[in-house]
Design a protein that fits this description.
Layout: E1 28-29, E2 35-40, H1 42-45, E3 50-56, E4 66-67, E5 72-79, E6 82-85, E7 90-93, E8 98-101, E9 108-110, E10 117-124, H2 130-142, H3 144-153, E11 157-158
Amino acid sequence: MSYPEPRHLGDQGEINAVFRPADTAADLTSPGGNRIHYLATHATTGGEFGLYKVDLGPRSPGPRTHFHKSISESFFVLSGTVDLYNGEKWTTAGAGDFLYVPVGGLHAFRNDSAEPSSMLLLFSPGAPREEYFEQVAEMARRGGREFADFLVRHDSFFVDEDAPAG
C-alpha cells in the first residue's frame, strides 16, 4: 500500500494545529455520571476522523449491540474496566486494551464495575457524531418513527436482540 495522494499542495507547511488542554471541561455530561470530551471532531479534522474521550460512570449500561454502515470504531481503555462486545463475545478490557471494529462490525460497550472508567473512542472517517451523543437520550425517550429516522441519519443500526451476557 502506498501513501494517499497529497492534499496539501504548498511548498511550505502551515500553522494550523489544534490544541486542547487536559483540563478542558467535558462537552457533554449525563445524569448517570458519563462525560464525553470531543477531542477531535469531524469539523476540526476535516472529516478524517473523530476522537472522543468517554468517561463512564459506575454501572453505566452503554449502547445496545449495533453496527455502522459508513464508519469504523475503535476503543482504547485509559483507566478502569470497560466491557467490550466484539460481535461474538464480551471481554472485560482494562487500561491499555484496544478493540477495533471495522465498518459493519457488531459491537457494544458498558461499564459493569462499581468504579468509573475512561476510554478513547475513535471513528473513521470523521462523521458529525456530536449531535448523536447530545440528542440520543431525548430521541429514545420520544421513540417511534422520529427515533428510527434519527438512528438511520446517524448511521446507527441496532440489532433486535442484545448481545449475550457474560
